[in-house]
Amino acid sequence: MVFPNPQAARPGTADSAAAAPFARVKQYLKDGLAQGLWPPGAPMPSEAELVAHFGVSRMTVNRAMRELQAEGLVQRTQGVGTFAAPLHRVSSTLTIRDLHEEITARGHRHDAVVHLQQAEPAPAALAAQLGVAPRARVFHTLIVHLEDGVPLQCEDRYVNPACAPGYLEADFTRTTPTQYLFEHTQLWRAQYTIESSRPTPQEATLLRIEPGAPCLVVVRRTFTRDAVITLGRLVHPGSRYQLSGEFAP
After folding, report:
1. Which value, in Å, is the radius of gyration of the alpha carbons in the chain?
2. How far apart, in whole angstroms, are the C-alpha atoms of residue 115 and residue 189?
């Protein structure tokens, strides 16, 4: 395929050089879609072509494609390819983003304190959520993420070992669980619930807030094509966090 060259995403510009590799690939494709270089239903560049064009790994390209799919901009069919999404497909979406990237993009420092990282038996209710047998071994992490030393998120996460067998060996002071799972699993879809709620006593202590302080609580479950990857409870102090988005018809 001969690659079009949307101006805003041209490899080698100052802006693209500063972005993460997956973000450069993603922005290149988004700009091309916005300019009509790939009309609805048209085939997008293959992963192999993007790997060669940008000089990045297939995993990097796959992440860019997954995020475009989650945003409803492309459609992917295994064994067939990736295609520009039809114009009539409009949806409200939440994109899974790595908190480390959000914080560093603001020019701030991200730190993580790992309070728990272990395997443990899953009670029946948790096992049902993860699609494993009751009392089966699952991975559990409890991590507090800080922005410039201030707690921003308490992340309580359970992981299906069948999907990420090396999860407990990761150093989560150097990478985040989200980034690790992006790189080591085949994310297909996600489910969310979002509510305003009070923290548990443990969460209030870890976040350094009052027990009754309002929090934004996101419960997220992610899947491969045929298995649950992870179940996470993400608790954010209401005074320090907001959800925002952008819509373009």
Report:
1. 19
2. 28
Q: Domain limits at 50?
A: 7-84
CATH code, 57: 1.10.10.10
Domain count, the chain: 2
E strands, the chain, in order: 74-77, 81-84, 110-121, 137-147, 150-159, 189-197, 215-223, 228-237
DSSP string, 120-133: EEPPHHHHHHHT--
DSSP character at residue 162: T
Global pTM reads 0.65
Q: Each residue of 124-145: pLDDT tens digit?
A: 999 999 999 999 999 999 999 9
Q: Are residues 72 and 191 in the same domain?
A: no
The reply to whether 62 and 129 lie within a common domain is no
Q: Beta partners for 43? A: 83
Q: Are 135 and 159 found together in one domain?
A: yes
- Please enumerate in sequence order all residues whose Cβ is within 8 A of that of 62, keeping only pairs 6 or more positions apart, or say none: 47
Tens digit of pLDDT for each residue in 14-55?
344 457 889 999 999 988 888 888 888 889 999 999 999 999
What DSSP assignment string belongs to 69-111? HHTTSEEEETTTEEEEPPTT----------HHHHHHHTT--EE
